[in-house]
Write a structure and sequence with these properties.
213 residues, alpha/beta, Rossmann fold, Arc Repressor Mutant, subunit A, 2 domains, 6 strands, 52% helix, globular, Sig_transdc_resp-reg_receiver, DNA binding, phosphoprotein
């Protein structure tokens, strides 16, 4: 489903997606409240959610969708100037975020990734997001990680927060991709995280990443 208050944006995405064999646009919404209602009616697999919409914004709409029934997942649409709103949307349960000027193929790939149950974080946007929040003049005090998190897992978590893929982490730490996946699985369990997006948030809140990173 497409949720954006600009009809031209929705129309453009719909036209482009129509030519894609494995993705179908089930509905459109121009406000957050309308997005929540349509999700409950149609139960789409993925919502491409704009952040700034009249009335209920994309953050609150995401929160309501994620706490409601069904399996719908949310991908946030943003611009580089919307970092703070994106962070709020991720806290609300979004499975990732996209930049509106991304190539169509990248947007379609992101939809497929999230529909398959994974999360997507663009490394460049992740680094900007973390830098924005760790560089605030009044940062919140770090939250301690559970005692069971090992030093290796902390290292993996830090690299996840910097936007590295499993393959890149494996190369950096001189371990196999399978070992990285095992570390990620244990981090998800120990931190009670739903996906990779929540691991990034946990790393930020624990003070494992900084603006210089």
């Amino acid at each position: 489903m497409l949720a954006d208050d600009q009809p031209l944006v929705r129309a453009g995405l719909r036209v482009l997606i129509t030519d894609t064999a494995d993705i179908e646009v089930a509905g459109e919404a121009g406000t957050g409240a309308e997005a929540v209602r349509i999700v409950r009616e149609l139960g789409p697999d993925v919502v491409l959610m704009d952040v700034r919409m009249p009335g209920m914004d994309g953050i609150e709409a995401t929160r309501r969708i994620m706490t409601g029934p069904g399996h719908t997942r949310v991908l946030v649409l943003t611009t580089f100037d919307d970092d703070e709103y994106v962070y709020g949307a991720l806290r609300a349960g979004a499975s990732g975020f996209l930049v509106k000027d991304m190539a169509l193929d990248d947007i379609l790939a992101a939809v497929r990734v999230v529909a398959a149950g994974d999360a997507l974080i663009a490394p460049s946007v992740t680094r900007r997001l973390i830098a924005r929040f760790t560089g605030r003049p009044d940062p919140a005090p770090p939250r301690l990680l559970p005692e069971g998190v090992t030093e290796r897992e902390r290292e993996v978590l830090r690299l996840i927060a910097r936007g590295l893929t499993n393959g890149e982490i494996a190369t950096r730490l001189f371990i196999s991709v399978a070992t990285v996946k095992a570390h990620v699985a244990r981090l998800l369990a120990k931190l009670g995280a739903r996906d990779r997006v929540q691991l990034v948030i946990a790393a930020y809140e624990a003070g494992l990443v900084s603006a210089s990173a």
